[in-house]
Amino acid sequence: MIGQRESVSGAHFGFTDRWGGVSAAPYEELNLGGAVGDDPGSVRTNRELAAGALGVDPARVVWMNQVHGADAVVVDEPWGDRPVPEVDAVVTARQGLALAVLTADCVPVLLADPVAGVAAAAHAGRPGLVAGVVPAAVRAMTELGADPARIVARTGPAVCGRCYEVPEDMRADVAAVEPTAYAETSWGTPAVDVVAGVHAQLERLGVSGAGRSPVCTRESDDHFSYRRDRTTGRLASYVWLDPRT
Ligand SMILES: [Zn+2]
């Protein structure tokens, strides 16, 4: 894995890329998605490899059943034998529990208030941007004692606004909700910039200075891209907090 890990005052962010796993084509190598047609044993192995590389206990990772909605759920433990809920944001006040988002072009949004000890992970594609999954995640965090002014935020590898071509009317619909998402492809057709929209929403919520990955998944050979390859793997982005001493 040539992914990366970043730590800010007790909050940790981890991002994978496509290398260092055991999956065969077209999921090579480090596919972490369990619902894309890859061999389940390979996915399990990859999740252990990624967790090990990031310094996370693979048994303490919380995954979501992402559905492009705006529901956020508070979680205290991994799901275990319980069904994984259909949500696009998970929030926890449990230190050491890692929250994970699966993406291949959509925007992984990681949030942490190290003072309150509250973290959240959200999956924001175009529908999630419009539906408001980012405000839902921040709201759920504040209900657990987080302060938006203290929240450290990162967005991971995602398709950029110059690559995300959409029909004209779809761009208009998205821009009606989030004007900053209005974009044009590098070849001059209507596009949506979900990353810009997510960052504008964060600023409006009082979460400033969010870091953003420079990687465009569609342009990077080191990342999975649904829009480029259709049948492909999923990247994972993780957030977790140090146990407080
Ligand atoms: Zn791009």
Radius of gyration, in Å, reads 17 Å
Helical amount:
10-25%
- The CATH topology of the domain at 2-147 and 218-241 is CNF1/YfiH-like putative cysteine hydrolases
The SS-based structural class is alpha+beta
Order of helices and strands: EEHEEEEEEHHEHEEHEHE
Overall pLDDT confidence? 96
What would CATH call the homologous superfamily of the domain at 2-147 and 218-241?
A: CNF1/YfiH-like putative cysteine hydrolases
Task: Based on the coordinates given, report the CATH architecture of the domain at 2-147 and 218-241.
Answer: 4-Layer Sandwich
The main sheet orders its strands as 4-5-8-7-9-12
Would you spell out the secondary-structure blueprint of this structure?
Layout: E1 4-8, E2 11-15, H1 40-54, E3 61-62, E4 72-74, E5 89-92, E6 98-103, E7 107-113, E8 118-124, H2 126-131, H3 133-143, E9 152-155, H4 168-177, E10 182-184, E11 190-192, H5 194-204, E12 211-212, H6 226-229, E13 235-241
Parallel strand pairs: 3-6, 4-5, 9-12
Antiparallel strand pairs: 1-2, 2-13, 5-8, 6-13, 7-8, 7-9, 10-11
The chain binds zinc ion.
Zinc ion is lined by residues 159-160, 162-163, 216, 218-219.
